[in-house]
Amino acid sequence: MELRYLRYFVAVARERHFTKAAKALGISQPPLSQQIKRLEDEVGTPLFRRLTRGVELTEAGEAFYEDACKILALSDAALEKARGIARGLNGSLSIGITSSDAFHPKIFALIRKYQKQNMAVRVYQVEANMSSLTTMLAEGELDIAFVRLPCESSKAFEVKVLDREQMMVALHRNHPLAESGEVALEQLRDTPVVLFPQEIAPCLYDSVYGCCERAGIDMQNMLQSSQLSSSISMVAAGCGFAMVPESMAAISHPNVTYHALTSPEIYTDIALCWRRFERSHTVKRFISTMNEE
Q1: Which of 24, 130, 136, 242 is 20 to 30 A from 145 in CA distance terms?
Q2: Is 121 helix (H, G, I), strand (E, B) or coil?
Q3: CATH code for the structural domain at 3-87
Q4: Which keywords accompany this UniProt record (predicted)?
Q5: What is each CA distance from 198 to 18, 25, 119, 207, 209, in whole angstroms?
Q6: Rounded mean pLDDT of 202-226?
Q7: pTM of the predicted protein model
């Protein structure tokens, strides 16, 4: 059964008149009558009673009318959904975020703006370390991911920087330098360093590790946290000092103070990654939203 038969039938049922229905459909009346007759032959029973001044639905026609309206509504919705996905206006978007990125306000402001502009798109967020995110992105399990640069594995993707952050020093409030506004790494030679795992951000880890080594900090006594955020908890417990991105200073703890790093200055970029030659219009619309910012 063709959908056009249902559209013709519904038009006649609503107008209760072949000529009026034909005018509404933009066709002539004889072909419309022929199509309705073919539909009735296919159904196996009359759907209309022909009257002197129009038509009325038979009992079978009444039942058929309800279902025909539902089928047409579903068909129109499916068509609009497919067109919307093709234009990036609906569908879904999976976004990967590292645990350290989760504290950066620009990321969630951007996601919120995108959601407001694309209400029909379902947005999913996945939090994982850098290695897992880039693997998931490469294998198609994620559409886009926010990562921290420098990152060697990001070279396999298209990358656009969202923001640059300075690394800061987190100290216990009882540390002799806790009242200082700025701190140099050389001043922390007698304090153990708490370092995040290398797989969270390999290149950033190497950069921080190298700077600590050059500053004369004893890396043999280095402590490792499970995440960047947990390094702050270890500082609060008196384990040593940690280096964290500036946005993570939003984690307020009564036993922790944050300080700008004067020597050396270390920066980390937050960037959006997506697969090269990406064809998804949903992804392209997110990138466009980011470009607006």
Answers
A1: 242
A2: strand
A3: 1.10.10.10
A4: DNA-binding, Transcription, Transcription regulation
A5: 75, 67, 38, 11, 10
A6: 89
A7: 0.65
